[in-house]
Amino acid sequence: MTTRLFAEVTGPDSGLPPVLLLHSLGLDHTMWRSCLPFLAADRRVIAADLPDHGGSPSAEDGGAELIRLLDDAGAADAHVVGVSLGGNEALALAARAPDRVRSVTAAGSFASLDEPERAAKLVATARRASTLGMSRFADAYVTETLAPRARRSDGPRLREVLAGTPLEAYTAAARRCFATDLRPLLPRIGCPVLLLVGRHDTRTPRSCAERIAAGLANPQIEEIPAAGHLANLDAPQIFAVSVRTFWSALERPAAPDGRAHHRSG
User: Fold this and answer.
1) How wide is the angle at C-alpha 34 spanned by C-alphas 32 and 38, nearest 5°?
2) pLDDT digits (tens, 9 = 90+) for 74-103
3) What b/e readout covers 133-168, taking b as 16+ CB neighbours within 10 angstroms?
4) Which domains does the chain have, with CATH numbers?
5) pTM for the whole thing?
């Protein structure tokens, strides 16, 4: 077993629980750059490249590689935050390794796609990327996905990452992403889960978060008003405040009766 995922580690080793950040399809750890000043101010943050993305090679078992990444970072457990594909991976990791995941925040994620939708989505995505080529495909992705402010601040970097992804690697990653079926895993997730939804997200609207929530014991759903599919880019500070408020409630000292304080959903 030689695969090891690439990760960028920032923030102080303050004793607070660390954070594992997981990016969306076709991008890499750099999609978190706008959020990092807010998330890593008081704790270590591990921004990973998922298999076949960025600096990470292919992996037979991506979940096992994420656990190895936590081991390599000396993190007994972590809050896991993911967007789109990264949110799906975060939820799957919480089901697989409950002792390693303190909480999950998943934004713009989905539980599963029906077979006709899955096949149509893959065919349309692969055909468009192949027809346009990855450079023009990246241009279209940035224009169609990001809000105007994020397009100016983060668009050039995201475009460079996506344009540099080989077509075959992107198509293979899309196939794995669209094949996601979290439904049998959701009842096994015992940690707190925050589901974030961009108000203007047409790819994974609120109904997708509600389908995930239906399989969980005590989820919270919050809407990010000024965001679309990539809420961490469209509204990084609002995104970070929602996430940090969620963590703070979980990390607050126990009440006198021995019960932990939690935010209501």
Assistant:
1) 95
2) 999 999 999 999 999 999 999 999 999 999
3) ebeebbbebbeebbbeebbeebbebbbebbbebeee
4) 7-112+182-251 (3.40.50.1820)
5) 0.94
